[in-house]
Amino acid sequence: MNDTVSLVLFSGTDDKLTAAATLAAGAAAMGRRVNVFLQFWALDAFRADRIEKDHGVSAEAGPEGAEAMRRMNERGQHWSETFRQAKEIGDIGINACAHSMEMLGLTQDDLDPMVNDVMGIAAFMVQVTGPVVFI
Amino acid sequence: MNDTVSLVLFSGTDDKLTAAATLAAGAAAMGRRVNVFLQFWALDAFRADRIEKDHGVSAEAGPEGAEAMRRMNERGQHWSETFRQAKEIGDIGINACAHSMEMLGLTQDDLDPMVNDVMGIAAFMVQVTGPVVFI
Amino acid sequence: MNDTVSLVLFSGTDDKLTAAATLAAGAAAMGRRVNVFLQFWALDAFRADRIEKDHGVSAEAGPEGAEAMRRMNERGQHWSETFRQAKEIGDIGINACAHSMEMLGLTQDDLDPMVNDVMGIAAFMVQVTGPVVFI
Predict the structure, then answer these.
(1) Torsion, Cα of B59, B61, B62, B63 (10° steps)
(2) Distances from the Cα of C107 to the Cαs of A21, B67, C53, C84, in angstroms?
(3) What pTM did the predictor assign?
(4) CA C78, CA A48: separation in Å to the nearest integer?
(5) Which residues of B touch A68 (CB under 8 A)?
(6) DSSP-based three-state secondary structure for B17
(7) How large is the ipTM?
(8) Which chains neighbour B (Cβ–Cβ under 8 Å, 3 or more pairs)?
(9) What is the pLDDT along chain A (135 residues), one digit of tens a residue?
């Protein structure tokens, strides 16, 4: 029985990262192992100096959607905090894509401490045995 | 043998919803159980008063892509009708994410009748045993 | 044991296609069978006369992201070349969605030769037994 869920995070907007954090926390709460792999703009959003800043929303959200998102963030918790709490209660690994690190000119010191390590795509694919969600 | 396909619908543009409806109908036609979970802008697109309106296309489509999409919609059927027909012939459940309902200030009466219920992410994750597609 | 990975490519921007090519190559390098299904704007990007042109980046990338992507493309290889090499070393099938072919008014002669065939969604779903990644 395969209970691992892999999340490849590509997008770095607050709406998609909120959806990703919710899926990760939900899967972890069900006792599933969660592998998170950060690429491109999602990796950029996990930079220590930016993670709690405003990362915008998807282009399709429009002003009405952006406003609904902003109100939700005031009432609820930020997606970075959802990831942090989920890591404390569940079995979640968060790794950065080596290729994207190079593209963005980053070292691991530039990233939020909740990121465990930097790895290549092959090392990530070895872990992938269950569903893969690309966000 | 795991035949269930889970679709997490996040985007609310007509091109992505058409792709989602096609995947759902294709999976159902192959005899697979399909779990659809509506979040964020996809949930907004399932509002009873908006479902058949123009929801735009992805930013990347450009004017040429938008025109190709418009012509296809004139010749073919709307994605909402594809979902409706797929529900009639196959085993498809469509549920709304409780968190997104709250963000958008919606109650189930605001949604198209093909939406079965409102549920939390944990209840959705319990059903997830096969592939998960995030659109 | 299910080792097949299915990639449904919807987006046609260079950042997402680079992520897709990397996943396909990584999975193939691990000895997994990879099924690629081209829809909508990703299919458009595989047109023989456009595949190596500039396809832009996601709206969220911004000018800074677009510049990072451009520099990476100068140093590294284009995503189309990553797909080509991965097909040579691994077990990768690339097929075009019949529905999207019709929408874009294309025949197989319009596509890059690495596209194996045109197929409907039901034929694609038959092959789907492992994870499905929608990009």
Answers:
(1) -130
(2) 41, 19, 20, 21
(3) 0.95
(4) 30
(5) 103-105
(6) helix
(7) 0.93
(8) A, C
(9) 468 999 999 999 999 999 999 999 999 999 999 999 999 999 999 999 999 999 999 999 999 999 998 898 888 899 999 999 999 999 999 999 999 999 999 999 999 999 999 999 989 988 888 899 999
